[in-house]
Specification:
699 residues, mainly beta, Porin, GMP Synthetase, Chain A, domain 3, 30 strands, globular
């Protein structure tokens, strides 16, 4: 058996290195699994860095929906949701959730192939579990050859003894799954173990739209064949792919000699807005200094302030602080319009240059939240005029700007008419619940009213009301298999028992206890399921990549009608947190503490946030709760997306569409959803965040 394995290994290596032609890779195709591939087998390609790819694929009794994100130039991750009809026999259809990861070990060159190591379904129930090494080489720009070796599900037809057995007998056999039926566990002990098999294929790009594909797949669909009679007569799969003008792909295929397949993939580039260039109003042009001197001469300070306040209001900025000392004007503004704080700073600086007398040479502009200063940026008047039309004005103006912790808030600095301040919003809302075991998509549509009354700087009373109109959230009747207190898994009961809801009703006080420090205390109905007291302290120097925070909460579970009553369950919960801006677009966060169900552990989060605010991230939480106690899914994990409204419409807006996608919602690792956590409030005003978006200063 070992001699046979070495023979097969040599054959596989020949397939991997049979690549001695030149050429550049063209747009890659997407497999039915939603990853770079031919039809069913993977290739060694990568998507464009930062790309999001959404794929829907269907073949006999099987549907797969996959989201793939190119996290780094050399690694991408995928989340897949599959429906396999009749797989569980009398128990009905199987809704399966799985994760993939794909690492590039070698980039394609003129003389050698790209080589990738991949794990398919490494964190699910294991139905699609497989591991592989694969190589791809491009010939003459349009012809691609792929070959590889796979384990697990990819070790079906033509399987042979594992060549990794030369490193020890443990690789010879593949243990059965030990997930206890819950799924979600990382079964490291199964990876690259058991028999292996070869796979391969070719693609030929006939023109910019049409590509022909052929492959050899060793997958025998053993589980599907046994349960639903899936017929595999041939390992050869054939397909034709059509690429539309917008980059999306549609592939039709004939699979395993018996089955027709259809795959559609849509590509999203987070860096490229739907409406490039934007549709917002142009910034106010800088008036010539002589004209400013003439128009401000003889005006009183009240008149100047009134004109400046009016001009800022037109730009979507609220003036809450004003003082003058010698040649320096200090203002504090609240940004109600722009997704990037740098754009609010730029608009404010232009207004000051046009409305303040020429003797005001320096502008200290503080970004504020509910009257609380976050940071200050000094802009010199002369720099505005000098750099306005400079082709390199973005980086040159940022180099000259001085970012400091905050303005010295002196008595009388806050405008007399800035507080109290009342604001409201009214409009529709849409909630989604994904991947319920009995229904992949549930939703709720209704109207929401938000009321905010800021009495004095930092002290705000808020109320949020929601009235559902159409909902399927309350249709779920499947009970949670978690043995923990039901702090989240009763979401369907909250949806069923409530009508008009008080989503939150709080009194919040935010203040600055010292340099680089921020504090918050919130009391009331904090979120849909819990009310109580929440306190927080954050240390975040203006020019630091690192921030540290601590939060402590005492909360009581709310009644299912989401009005004024409470249930018997109460808990102390809280975390200490570390936040770090990694080089590039990446951001890491670690939270350690006690969760709502009383369990202790840590949550690890990694986000990629682009300059326009588009964010894609993933997280997982490990606590002292066993997988059996947690229930289906074994531990909390998920993906989160934040899409700025401005990215879609091109119009300035601070609103975002935020969605967290969990394979399953259970009670372990559940955290309180309190509003206005300090890191989120303060981050946009820090030097690291401002530097990324400073090009918007001139927009």
């Amino acid at each position: 058996m070992k001699i046979r394995a070495v023979t097969h290994l040599r054959t596989g290596l020949l397939a991997l290195v049979c690549v001695l032609a030149t050429g550049l890779a063209q747009a890659q195709s997407v497999s039915t699994y939603g990853t770079p591939g031919l039809l069913e087998i993977p290739t060694a390609e990568m998507f464009d860095d930062g790309a999001l790819v959404f794929t829907a694929a269907g073949l006999r009794d099987t549907g797969r929906a996959t989201m793939t994100f190119q996290l780094l130039p050399w690694v991408h991750g995928s989340f897949r949701y599959a429906l396999i009809r009749g797989l569980d026999g009398a128990d009905g259809d199987r809704y399966d959730r799985s994760f993939d990861v794909h690492f590039r070990l070698r980039e394609e060159s003129r003389t050698g192939p790209a080589i990738v190591m991949g794990l398919r379904d490494f964190g699910g129930t294991g139905i699609y579990a497989a591991e592989y090494f694969v190589a791809t080489k491009t010939f003459r720009d349009r012809f691609k050859l792929t070959g590889g070796i796979g384990w697990g599900r990819m070790a079906g037809r033509g399987a042979f003894s594992n060549p990794l057995g030369i490193f020890g007998s443990r690789f010879d056999t593949r243990p059965a799954s030990n997930s206890n039926g819950e799924g979600g566990e990382l079964e490291f002990g199964n990876w690259f173990r058991g028999d292996a098999a070869l796979f391969g294929g070719v693609s030929w790009q006939y023109n910019d739209q049409l590509t022909f594909l052929a492959e050899y797949s060793p997958d025998l669909y053993t589980r599907e064949r046994e349960d639903i009679g899936f017929d595999v007569r041939s390992p050869i799969n054939l397909g034709v792919q059509y690429r539309f003008d917008n980059g999306s792909q549609l592939t039709t295929s004939y699979l395993y000699g018996t089955t027709l397949g259809l795959t559609y993939s849509y590509f999203v580039n987070p860096r490229k807005a739907v409406t490039p260039g934007g549709q917002g109003s142009a910034p106010p042009p800088l008036q010539p200094e002589a004209q400013v001197a003439a128009t401000t001469a003889g005006r009183g300070s009240e008149d100047i302030r009134a004109r400046m306040q009016s001009a800022l209001n037109q730009e979507g900025l609220r003036l809450v602080y004003l003082s003058e000392t010698g040649d320096t004007v200090r203002v504090g503004v609240e940004n109600n319009r722009y997704g990037q704080a740098a754009q609010a700073l730029g608009r404010t600086a232009r207004v000051l240059a046009n409305e303040q007398p020429p003797q005001s040479e320096h502008f200290d502009i503080a970004l504020m939240s509910n009257g609380v200063p976050l940071s200050a940026v000094r802009v010199n008047r002369d720099d505005l005029y000098e750099l306005e039309h400079d082709p390199d004005n973005a980086w040159r103006s940022f180099a000259r700007a001085q970012i400091s912790d905050t303005l010295p808030v002196v008595q009388g600095g806050v405008l007399t008419d800035a507080f109290p301040h009342f604001s409201y919003s009214f409009g529709p809302y849409l909630n989604f619940s994904f991947f319920d075991p009995d229904d992949p998509l549930r939703y709720e549509v209704g109207v929401a009213l938000e009321l905010d009354y800021t009495v004095t700087p930092g002290l705000t009373f808020s109320t949020g009301l929601r009235q559902p109109i159409l909902s399927t959230l309350d249709d779920s009747t499947r009970p949670s298999d978690s043995t923990l207190p039901r702090v989240r898994s009763d979401w369907n009961i909250y949806a069923r028992e409530s009508n008009l809801r008080i989503e939150h009703m709080t009194g919040e006080y935010m203040w600055r206890p010292g340099e680089n420090l921020y504090a918050r205390t919130t009391l009331g109905y904090l979120e849909t399921m819990f009310g109580g007291l929440s306190t927080e302290l954050l240390w975040y120097p203006t020019n630091s990549r690192l921030a540290l925070g601590a939060e402590a909460n005492y909360v009581v579970q709310r009644d299912f009608d989401v009005l004024f009553g409470f249930q018997d369950y109460n808990v102390f919960t809280g975390h200490v947190s570390a936040y770090y801006d990694l080089p590039g677009d990446y951001h890491a966060q670690v939270d350690v503490g006690r969760y709502l169900a009383g369990d202790y552990g840590a949550t690890f989060t990694l986000d990629r946030e682009f300059n326009n605010g588009f964010k894609v991230g993933a997280f997982f939480t490990l606590t002292n709760v066993s997988s059996e106690e947690f229930g289906e899914g074994s531990f909390d994990k998920g993906i989160r997306l934040e899409i700025p409204i401005a990215w879609m419409t091109g119009r300035p807006s601070r609103n975002k569409i935020a969605q967290t996608i969990r394979p399953v919602l259970r009670d372990g690792g559940a955290r309180l959803n309190v509003r206005n956590r300090l890191y989120g409030v303060t981050r946009e005003a820090r030097a690291q965040d401002l530097s990324r978006s400073w090009a918007r200063f001139w927009r």
